[in-house]
Amino acid sequence: MQSLIFAAVFSLIPFYAFADGTVECFSIRGFVECYTAVNMADFNASTTAVIDQCSNAHSRSDCSPSTLAHNFRNLCAVVMVNNANSDKRLFLGLKVQASNAIADALSQCVNSSSGNGFNCPRLAMACDGTAVALDAPAKVPATSLSPSISKDAPQHQSWWSLINLTIIGSGIGTGIGIGIGLILVLLIYAARAPIINFIIHGNLLYELPAYGEDIQVIFKRTQRVNWYGRVIFGIVANLSMTKDQLSKVRRYWLGRVIAFDSLRRQRQNELARMHLHLAATVKTDAKEKRALSQLWAFLKVILLSVFYLLRALFSFLFGFLFIRITIAKLARGAVIESKDLVLILQAKMAIEETANYLKEYLTSADTFDGRDEIHNAE
């Protein structure tokens, strides 16, 4: 359990490795060339990798100083140049998405003097972090070159401020979801006993307030007058038994045995079953040949199925408003009230029959103890 809790906590902490990148442009023999390195352990490693790329193509002395140099983490870097005239400038766009970085660098280039989209070739592009895309190094004449960096691009800040906020949000969201799920699992595990008791045994009591010598039902008859002067008849039924009999009721899962259902509740249950059957038997008209008619027949089947399912759900839920008495509820003490005296008497008779059934059931269950039984044919 502790390992699950630690996993949920650590999932909230974003961790990033090999997400440092560097882009550098060099003026070499009258041309400017740009090199990139991504997914490195730190900025020193990415800078060294860029210098090595340049040195492999030229010489070490040609790769210094840099015309443009910039480090980035979990970002896309795009370098463009404005070659409309002799006053060339480099433009660096840094964004989370590659398309946004391209648009940023292009916007800077177009907004510069004499700039337009056709005069702004891309020298390099690199995306660090979750995606990687590299262009082969390009070069342009470097007559008069000056770098320009997006005004909202992050400079050399701390590693935390450069972390991709989108990835952080995704990681935190996943961690929160796992944490909430873990909390729910822990709550369900802590309350497993009452949940199991409710689902299987109908919330049957573990101990009765008063035990009896055998299974018996104590009835208390009541009547009262409601707010508009109508007499309401009622009975309070308490099922009593021995402690051993109560343990057997739990052992044989008899808590949810229904002692009495009112006619209205039975009617709602019948309606729910009927509408479920109708939803399962809805069919299309096979005689339809036109495409439009077939589409309409298909939609009609879908709509009717959804309607019957919703109607069945409504009947099922509506049935909870009416009387249902179970053995577990009798053990807790059931109160039945109605202005219909016949309904009260029917409920009393049904409860008495259930008590007789319960006693006979437990008595018969006790005989299944490995004994031998011989039947002599007549």
Q: Can you walk through the features of this model?
A:
This protein is of the alpha+beta class and 378 residues long. It has two domains: 20-152, no CATH class; 205-366, no CATH class. It contains ten helices and 13 strands. The chain has helices spanning 2-10, 43-57, 98-111, 165-190, 192-201, 243-251, 263-281, 291-318, 327-332, 341-366, and strands at residues 20-28, 31-40, 66-73, 76-82, 87-95, 122-127, 139-141, 144-149, 216-225, 231-240, 258-261, 324-326, 334-338. Strand 1 and strand 2 (31-40) form a beta hairpin. Helix 1 (2-10) runs antiparallel to helix 4 (165-190). The radius of gyration is 40 Å and the shape is elongated. The model is unreliable at 1-16, 131-137 and 149-167 (pLDDT under 50).
- Cα end-to-end separation: 65 Å
Shape: elongated
Strand content: 15-25%
Largest sheet: 4 strands, antiparallel
Order of helix and strand elements from N to C terminus: HEEHEEEHEEEHHEEHEHHEHEH
The tally of strands reads: 13
Structural class: alpha+beta
Question: What would you report as the Rg, rounded to the nearest angstrom?
Answer: 40 Å
> What is the total domain count?
2
Number of helices: 10
Strand order of the largest sheet: 3-1-2-7
Helicity, in percent?
40-55%
Overall residue-averaged pLDDT value: 81
Characteristics:
alpha+beta; disordered N terminus; four-stranded mixed β-sheet; 2 domains; elongated; 378 residues; 10 helices; four-stranded antiparallel β-sheet; 43% helix
